[in-house]
């Protein structure tokens, strides 16, 4: 698996800090740090958000060495199920609505409030797109 290596590579290539990436997927920089160090593995929801942010498939993010130039070949190719396509099947065009519960921890500082607003703002376009 190449997830941790790929995540660090893609984040640095985008010139984002761990905090910047955390804001984009509604988590904190500590979580991104744990993912990049291999100390933690994201759940499917977070993995899907990360793949969307970097415009790669979940399969590629986890199983393909994205740090290698495409012309030189990859250390490990995706499974046979994806041999003819580098993308997962497209999601249904029909929106499905589900209740969304967002929990935000505040420690009483202005910085924690700013982080919470940034995270909620980051997920707002995703939510608004399903209206």
Describe the structure.
This protein has six helices and no strands. It has helices spanning 3-13, 18-24, 29-37, 44-54, 58-63, 110-128. The chain starts with a helix and ends with a helix. The model is unreliable at 71-89 (pLDDT under 50).
- β-strand number: 0
Poorly predicted regions: 71-89
Report mean pLDDT, rounded to a whole number: 77
User: End-to-end distance, in Å?
Assistant: 36 Å
**Can you count the helices?**
6
What is the 3D form? elongated
What Rg do the Cα atoms give? 16 Å
Strand content: under 5%
Short key terms for the protein model shown above:
48% helix; DNA binding; DNA-binding; Cro/C1-type_HTH; 0% strand; 131 residues; Lambda_DNA-bd_dom_sf; Helix-turn-helix domain-containing protein; mainly alpha
Topology:
Elements: H1 3-13, H2 18-24, H3 29-37, H4 44-54, H5 58-63, H6 110-128
Q: How would you summarize this macromolecular structure in one to three sentences?
A:
This protein has 131 residues and is an all-alpha fold. The chain has helices at 3-13, 18-24, 29-37, 44-54, 58-63, 110-128.
């Amino acid at each position: 698996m190449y997830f941790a290596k790929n995540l660090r590579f893609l984040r640095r290539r985008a010139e984002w800090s761990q905090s910047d990436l955390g804001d984009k997927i509604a988590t904190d920089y500590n979580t991104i740090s744990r993912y990049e160090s291999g100390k933690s593995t994201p759940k499917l929801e977070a993995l899907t958000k990360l793949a969307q942010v970097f415009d790669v498939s979940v399969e590629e993010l986890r199983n393909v060495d994205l740090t290698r130039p495409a012309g030189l070949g990859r250390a490990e190719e995706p499974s046979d199920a994806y041999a003819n396509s580098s993308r997962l099947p497209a999601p249904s065009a029909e929106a499905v609505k589900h209740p969304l519960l967002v929990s935000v921890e505040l420690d009483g500082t202005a910085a924690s409030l700013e982080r919470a607003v940034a995270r909620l703002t980051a997920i707002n376009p995703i939510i608004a797109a399903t209206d």
